[in-house]
């Protein structure tokens, strides 16, 4: 027992020293020349690995932006100060997957343990951000509710929210010239940026506005033990098939019949995680076929994407013909795939354990790399090969619900369904581009001096369609405003439009 106590004591000392050293580096000012070298390294890395660097910005314009950035570095900066200089330039490339990671202060296990016993400070509510305003949308925990829906937050600890919105918006980007993505992304990510910049807080002093009355409010963390929340514990099989998310106490994948006679099937996919997806689609589409449903509503709003394999499998249940989902992904050079992350961010022990598998990783990526007839470097993706329709494929009419937070794989399958005239797209322009995206897997570059991390997608993935060249998201066939900012709204206007349209066709 004495040895155990000694081990724990030594571990805590090492942890504290490690965190102390990391935080000293976090605050350390980096010389001007080293910052400029990191800017050069960023641009060189992007030119080497990013397959469509000049899709939405010309080479001349991007080069000018990097040169201009270097000229503004007139004094030493710490890591985070440098981040807010470099990230807005990278955002101008307009590739939604390409985001410099914001650095933040580290905490010891003892410090984080204290916070783990309480709810996230700002996570007690969801928010809507638009027109440089932050509105409280609804509470997320069943605790004493003091901030009412519709409350505007004007200041946080003396800092104006409008200034923070402008600052964080500058480092974010969607695909192409889409604008619908930002209201969702900023609403979700705002307090991630805030916490990274200002650290973990026990409480926050807010200046709020409700029904034209301005007042002060102290937001405090709530002990998790005080929160009464009924937990659902599904079986292991159900967890996997429907992809249970313990954090939100809900399923990422679900299906129900939207009307009493089962003629309308409603399928909600929150993320294309691929976890248990094959069993889910096999089971679900068999059930839809047995019910003889005439309509299918596929809801991929707020689905930020995920697995190409999953959407390829899903598509096989949405068509009765053989198809090819995407074109063969392109890379900047042959074998660029061997630069994808393998050891990145692994602790030393895990790196040692994983080392024997590395030669097989290299061999596998070399085998899957090649060149097409035009001489372009490609990666042999299974979703780029012809696939067959499933026997229980849905043959009725399909509606797809999308919004500005339908991104990446969600945009790929939406673009394909729309191009093939297999579905009616309803909602608003997607956050992901209609003509493709740069993603797949990353090579994360660590900048030499600032140690900032920049994940660069290695694959240019295009849906197998005739590109529109509009540099926009997937445009809905029927645009329906979701009334995003109406906090008192209890209706789903977009889903309601589809159900009304079906009713008209059935009458």
TrEMBL record:
InterPro entries: ClpP/crotonase-like_dom_sf (IPR029045), Tail-specific_protease (IPR005151). Pfam families: Peptidase_S41. It comes from the Bacteria. Residues 234-481 form the Tail specific protease domain. Coiled coil: none annotated. GO terms for biological process: proteolysis. Transmembrane segments: none annotated. SMART domains: TSPc. GO terms for molecular function: endopeptidase activity; serine-type peptidase activity. This is Peptidase family S41. The lineage of its organism: Bacteria, Pseudomonadati, Bacteroidota, Flavobacteriia, Flavobacteriales.
